[in-house]
């Protein structure tokens, strides 16, 4: 899903991105990008106190704010009737996540047996200063594995060689990744001397069915730029994703600031489950990516013209400004509700 909103900063708007079932966007050059920044990733959780404890105690996130909201504004935005939400913003380094617990109505838990090549897959990639120490700490805290163990991508893959990565899950089953960049890869800030083990969020990764269709949305419509492309396969990739025969086309995009968005298309196996058509924001599988724009109304017009599927009933004004925006919309990208 995408949510477009105006933040507390004057004239700053944001888009919370969710994935959509179908999308037709004409390719065009974007003179002024619709999206200026990736602000945060929002995850629905079943137990806020448990989630905050996990992200703060295990992964070193710090709580920024904690609020409870309800009413027609949020019903129209999220398309969930009778909604009451507790929302907690947490920070790691320069980046943010938002955790949302639906106090009413409660949604469904994540189904057991979800795989990394399902369209519902999305993770945040947390950069660490030392993979061995980070992995030992996660084991000590008994996290649920998604990879068989940390993997080092081999030198034949020039784009990813030397990167160390490990997938695991939070208490609700949301997929997470820790990664460590070699000296020749990753942003400069990930290589600054630091006594911290967990440094910040490099990107959020989402599984897509068709990279070109997703690029029509993220690049051609929203104006994000491609910063990297690769094909990853081999035993290390299989064990990282825990998918036998995994062969991925990976496209990395960035806006003007904030974490990147990484598109993961499984060239094989192509048996991942589609995103559930009956997903709602109060289901624990739900994630949103908040994107920032300078003009909510213009963003809405462009999205309507591109025949993007809206979740919200239109541009939603938030006079109370509880969650940091003044106007917002939620839409879907080509693969199902998410972002």
Question: How would you sum up this structure, described in words?
Answer:
Helices cover 17% and strands 36% of the residues. Strands 1, 2, 3, 4, 5, 6, 7, 17 and 20 form a nine-stranded mixed sheet that branches. Strands 8, 9, 10, 11, 12, 13, 14, 15 and 16 form a nine-stranded mixed sheet that branches. The protein has two domains: 2-109 and 280-333, 2,3-Dihydroxybiphenyl 1,2-Dioxygenase, domain 1 (Roll); 122-268, 2,3-Dihydroxybiphenyl 1,2-Dioxygenase, domain 1. With 339 residues, it is α+β, with helices and mostly antiparallel strands. The radius of gyration is 19 Å and the shape is globular.
CATH architecture descriptor name of the largest domain: Roll
For this structure, what is the CATH class of the largest domain? Alpha Beta
What is the oligomeric state here? single chain
What's the order of the H and E elements? EEEEHEHEEEHEEEEEHEHEEEHEEE
In whole angstroms, the N-to-C terminal distance is 5 Å
Strand elements, count: 20
What is the averaged pLDDT score? 88
Q: Major β-sheet, in short?
A: 9 strands, mixed
The gross shape turns out to be globular
For this structure, the CATH topology of the largest domain is 2,3-Dihydroxybiphenyl 1,2-Dioxygenase, domain 1
Number of domains: 2
Q: Report low-confidence residues grouped into runs of 5 or more.
A: 4-30
Report the radius of gyration as a whole number of Å: 19 Å
Please report which band the strand proportion falls in: under 5%, 5-15%, 15-25%, 25-35%, 35-45% or over 45%: 35-45%
Report the helical percentage: 10-25%
Put simply, the count of helices is 6
Q: Can you identify the CATH superfamily of the largest domain? A: 2,3-Dihydroxybiphenyl 1,2-Dioxygenase, domain 1
Structural class: alpha+beta
